[in-house]
Amino acid sequence: MTASFIPPKRILMGPGPSDVPQRILDAMARPTIGHLDPAFVDLMEQIKSMLRMAFQTENALTFPVSAPGSAGMEMCFVNLVEPGDKVIVCRNGVFGGRMLENVKRTRGVPVIVDDAWGAPVDPQKVRDAFKANPDAKILAFVHAETSTGAQSDAETLGRIAQEAGALTIMDCVTSLAGTPLYMDKWGIDAAYSGSQKCLSCTPGLSPVSFSERAIARIKARTTTVQSWFLDLNLVLGYWQSAGKRTYHHTAPINPMYGLHEALVILEEEGLENAWTRHRAMHEKLKAGLEGMGLRYVVEESARLPQLNSIYVPTGVDEAAIRARLLNEFNLEIGAGLGDMAGKIWRIGLMGYSAKQENVDACLKALKACLP
Ligand SMILES: *Cc1c(COP(=O)(O)O)cnc(C)c1O
């Protein structure tokens, strides 16, 4: 007989998932109810309202997609891009590359704006791309590039797109609740995030938000959305019309309890206080890492507090160190992705993981493992 699975106790300081507070796990263990039960409809309305607070938006169409962040990304592209549409895609790490892949698969025409891995998106290159492509309909960029730890200037990028009359798709999977984000003030039309990064919930849900302009674009489509599951025209009847909700799919009920609790916790702390805490913990971790002679990948002005990328010291077997951290200290940190594999470590300070105990545990463990 196979025994029940009991996971080891870990400290999660990688690029996500982050530590999940017991309160959220307890919420998820409550009895499952039906997804058309009026009590579940109430829960959904509260989640939507609290997500508007997290995104700093008034957008009516703000809800969690029943799938991970990658599905939120795909929902934005399959609904907003029609075959032949020109999309300016900023690529300064892995996730910008995935946006490009989405543009190609929706048969949009990508215009790529490349920046070095570890650098933020250069707004001047985006201005130039719009100048050379005045027919571009969408600008797509990653606010917080988790693969490198770089933060781009979303406010400036949003303004450039608006001036060019284009819509904006923003990846804020790692930025939501971790670093200042003002969807409406910045004029962002479509944004997607994830439950398991700075919201500290379990993985598997993707909060998204769409502006009125984005909805108008979707309603004016001349071709059907290629994905049945992610077609907003269909999903809308399920999430938007309280009272007369129609069956589309079965929402993951208990994970929704978890997301609700995560947002209640965020409300209790205060969004700005959460941003401040991430920054304060980053300062402490940075002081410790630099004290050990470790160097950051990203220049200070573009550094994400919740994702600390540092160079692996020369002559050190990075995978062996990570294995020791996990096996001897129960501490998970992230490896480099793509071009940065083997060269960097990524230390996350996301959500509930952004606390003094974790900073101390990480510095102590690294000190013990580094030569
Ligand atoms: C984690 C992440 C994603 C993907 O989210 P999943 O929940 O793993 O599908 C997308 N973009 C960024 C910037 C991320 O950090």
Task: Provide a descriptive summary of the structure in words.
By secondary structure, the protein is α/β, with parallel strands linked by helices. It has two domains: 11-16 and 271-369, Aspartate Aminotransferase, domain 1; 22-266, Aspartate Aminotransferase, domain 2 (3-Layer(aba) Sandwich), CATH 3.40.640.10. Helices cover 40% and strands 15% of the residues. It is built from twelve helices and 13 strands. The chain has helices at residues 22-28, 38-55, 69-80, 94-105, 123-132, 154-163, 212-219, 232-239, 253-269, 271-291, 318-329, 356-369; strands spanning 11-13, 61-65, 86-91, 109-114, 138-142, 144-145, 150-151, 167-171, 190-192, 206-210, 307-311, 331-335, 344-348. The strands form three sheets. Strands 2-10-9-8-5-3-4 form a seven-stranded mixed sheet, sandwiched between helices. A four-stranded mixed sheet has the order 1-12-13-11. A two-stranded antiparallel sheet has the order 6-7. Helix 5 (123-132) packs parallel to helix 6. It is globular and about 60 Å long. The mean pLDDT is 97. Bound molecules: pyridoxal-5'-phosphate. Pyridoxal-5'-phosphate is lined by residues 16, 68-70, 73, 95, 142, 146, 171, 173-174, 194, 203.
